Amino acid sequence: MKEKILMQPSVGRIVHYQSHGTPGGEYKSEPRAAIITGVVDETTDHLCVLNPTGQFFNLDVKHGDGPGRWSWPPRV
User: Fold this and answer.
1) What is the mean pLDDT of residues 14-31?
2) Tens digits of residue pLDDT in 58-74
3) How many domains, in total, are found in the chain?
4) To the nearest 10°, the Cα dihedral for 9, 34, 19, 64?
5) pTM
6) Distance between CA atoms of residues 76 and 53, nearest Å
7) Whole domain around residue 39: which residue ranges?
8) Across all residues in the chain, what is the average pLDDT?
């Protein structure tokens, strides 16, 4: 069953990408700022992920909670 997202992703939108962290736990999984660079469908996007030491491009990232997924930033 496909998850329904209330907001629709589009190129240029800011989202959060949840990093994987390291297997040994030296670095924990944490949210990173990301920009949508391409939309595959309403739950899968291409991202430019920003972190304190640089950036990387990640293709076909699924929406959701947990490492390796993107989500909308919480409202503050």
Assistant:
1) 94
2) 999 999 999 999 999 99
3) 1
4) -10
5) 0.86
6) 26
7) 14-71
8) 92
